[in-house]
Amino acid sequence: MHGIIVIDKPAGITSHDVVARVRRALKTKRVGHTGTLDPFATGVMVILVGNATRLAQFLDKDEKEYEAVVRFGFETDTGDRTGNPTEDIEIPAANLSEKLEKMKWDVVFENFLGEIEQVPPMFSAKKVDGRKLYELARKGVDIERKPVSIKIYNLQAVPISPDLGQSVRGRRDGTWDMGLTVTCSAGTYIRTLAEDIGRAVGVGAHLAELRRTRAGRFGTADAITLDEFQSLDDQPSVLTSMNEAISHLPEIMLNDDRVAKTRSGLSSRISEHNLSSGDTVRIVDLKGELIAVGRFDAEENSVQPKIVLG
Length: 310
Known about the structure:
Blueprint: E1 3-9, H1 15-26, E2 31-33, E3 42-49, H2 56-59, E4 64-72, H3 93-101, H4 105-110, E5 114-118, E6 127-128, E7 131-132, H5 133-137, E8 148-158, E9 176-184, H6 190-201, E10 205-215, E11 218-219, E12 224-225, H7 226-231, H8 242-245, E13 251-253, H9 256-263, E14 268-269, E15 280-284, E16 290-297, E17 302-308
């Protein structure tokens, strides 16, 4: 039982809870994922099962796509709606609305497109000196964090999607919501982006809603809800094959006489290809089953298996 399941995570549970429920349903311990979502967030989680957990390094760096709601009016200590307000509204409600409705958002967003530096929030799973930042944050400890390079490919203001809902939790009179779509590199914190957008226009802001609509090549159309998954009679039948999961990598198909040698870690010479030295490739047998993930050596004109899977 090896492959991936794309789960549409509901609000109110952690990413760890999703993994635990899949483990129980499939009766296997070898389950992982390619990127967490906060408990209040919903959307696409790519769940890895069995040997597919070894493919995480080829999937967790894929770009992500989100729908979000940024709430202007005040910041919170977590950067999202679950935190406590850290800044009072100083602009009267009418003035706030007038200011933001007249804002040229395409001009504002230009400063966030492309490669930018982002400081990870304290309430995050990022580790500093071996400790997760949120563990320190819960103790009231705030430490200096080094900015990291991220990339924003697309950032647009859009009508608020019904899928996100319009939560009124934590809302204060005079706050102002804006829907966003964001396409970004892995490792981007959307709540930090929300705060930074607010600071760019001089108004405190935080992330009110978040839904991941795509992780790499997998989107909401590929996803199944947890309840749907758990109600299936044949749950393994919905697993996507390991080969399909990494179909973005070039494919090298080997004859039967090379399959056993590849499983033993031996390299194979190849003839027709369009590869550069060091390229990562998926190695399959004549049936299209994934055997290994390897690396192309231009000098030897061969592929060397690095991770053997089948």
